[in-house]
Every structure is written in C-alpha cells, then in structure tokens.
C-alpha cells in the first residue's frame, strides 16, 4: 500500500508543481510579464538581441516554454515579444514552437498525474460520461483542432482537456502546432509593429483577432474542423 501511494504521488508530482508555480506566478509575476514591462525594457532587449542573436532566440524560446508549461500570466505578451524582437517571420515560428513544447509539457504532466486513470474510469463507465468519452474518441482530430481554433477556449484548458480523455501524444502535438498557427500569426504580426506603437505612446490592439477580417477566416477553419462531426451525426440519424 505504501509503495502504491508513493508511486501515485510521484506520478502526480509534476502536475502538483505546475499548479503550485502557476498560483504563485499569478500573484508575483503579473507585473513582470506585461506589456508595460516590454515597453519599459524594449531598448535593452533590442540591444541584447543585436549583440547575441542566437542566445536571444534560445532564451526567448526557453522563457516562452516556461510561461506556457506552468500556465503563467503573459503568454500573449510573449507572443507579441516574439514579433517585436524577431519580426513576423521567423518570430511566429519561434512562438508556435515554444507554445507547442510548453503545451506538451503540461499535457504530459496532467496525463501522468490524472489523465490515464480518469480516461480508464470514463471508458468503463456508463451513461452520459461514457457517451462523452466515446464522442470525443470518434472525433478526436476535429475536437482537438476546434478547441485550438476557437478564440474563446483558454489555452490552458485546451492543454488539459485532451490529457483527461486519453488523447495520444502525437495527435496532441500535431493538432496543437497547426491549430495555433492562425492566432499566433496574427498576434506575432501585431508584435512586429510594436515599434510604431511604442513611438506613438499607444497600446496594441489585441482585440484585432475578433475583428471580422481576422475572425471570420478563423471561424471558417473552425467550421471545417466541425464538419466531420456534423456529417457523422447526420449519417447516424439517417441510419436510424
């Protein structure tokens, strides 16, 4: 019994650490991982980038991974920073790479701590819980892309939910990388234009992703992701 409890604690330790760091970071790092902090330190960051480009790239990616992996505040600011320091391209490649690695880290920790056991319980259950699990299993690609594309779904939620329903790691990584491309590209391009924003003393329009010319194409992709689910549902009713 003691060994079993120790093994369970070891499995859950990574997600426990992530939750603890996330809670501490929410109260202690918010002022440091902010747009104001980027604005106030922009000249020092540019100087460091120009003098140590490779180190700047690797350091930026590492910090971004930590922010996402521990669900710290500032992921949006990190994406803007990637555009500000490294332009839209290759900045958005650095952004999506770091975001995918960080998301995979928290996904793996959650799956190790709770996901496998919870998925097994859902699989062996009955009623609505079993139907929910079966529905997700039958449409995993569509659901995974959908939760990445819809702006209203928080990023950390999209990282945790797949871990709790036994989504394969490979499928999670692929859907995350490609699913965050549209939103990341938009925010990175906003970051690339921050020089003019800083010069005019304004703040960036982060709500640009909800403007029609940006939001409608993303919603269109969401509908495409949803289409297989709709087709299966219609065919199921026809079969009845």
Task: Write a brief caption for the model.
The protein is mainly alpha-helical and 240 residues long. It has 13 helices and no strands.
Q: What can you tell me about this protein's structure?
A:
This protein is mainly alpha-helical and 240 residues long. It has one domain (2-239). The mean pLDDT is 80. It has helices at residues 2-28, 35-40, 42-51, 53-69, 75-86, 88-124, 127-138, 140-149, 155-164, 169-179, 181-192, 194-200, 212-239.
List keywords for this structure.
mainly alpha, single chain, globular
Oligomerization state: single chain
User: What radius of gyration results from the CA coordinates?
Assistant: 20 Å
Helix tally equals 13
Assign a percent range to the helix content.
Answer: over 70%
Based on secondary structure, the structural category is mainly alpha
From the spread of the alpha carbons, the general shape counts as globular
Strand content: under 5%
Which whole number gives the mean pLDDT?
80
Q: How many strand elements? A: 0
Q: List low-pLDDT spans.
A: none
Profile the largest sheet: none
Straight-line distance between termini:
50 Å
Q: What is the domain tally?
A: 1
């Amino acid at each position: 019994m003691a060994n079993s409890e120790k093994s369970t604690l070891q499995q859950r330790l990574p997600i426990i650490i992530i939750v603890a760091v996330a809670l501490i970071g929410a109260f202690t790092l918010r002022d440091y991982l902010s747009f104001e902090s980027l604005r106030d330190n922009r000249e020092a960051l540019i100087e460091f980038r120009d003098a140590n480009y490779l180190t700047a790239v690797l350091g930026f990616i590492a910090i971004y991974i930590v922010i996402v992996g521990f669900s710290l505040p500032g992921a949006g600011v990190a994406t803007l920073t990637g555009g500000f320091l490294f332009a839209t391209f290759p900045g958005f490649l650095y952004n999506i790479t770091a975001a995918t690695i960080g998301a995979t880290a928290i996904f793996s920790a959650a799956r190790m701590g709770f996901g496998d056991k919870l998925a097994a319980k859902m699989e062996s259950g009955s009623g609505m819980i079993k139907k929910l699990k079966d529905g997700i299993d039958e449409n995993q690609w569509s659901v995974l892309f959908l939760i990445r594309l819809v702006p209203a779904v928080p990023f950390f939620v999209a990282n945790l939910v797949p871990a709790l329903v036994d989504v394969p790691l490979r499928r999670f990584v692929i859907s995350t990388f490609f699913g965050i491309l549209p939103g990341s590209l938009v925010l990175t391009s906003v970051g690339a234009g921050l020089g003019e924003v800083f010069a005019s003393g304004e703040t960036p329009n982060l709500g640009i992703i909800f403007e029609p010319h940006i939001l409608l194409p993303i919603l269109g992709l969401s509908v495409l992701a949803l289409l297989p689910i709709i087709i299966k549902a219609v065919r199921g009713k026809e079969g009845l």
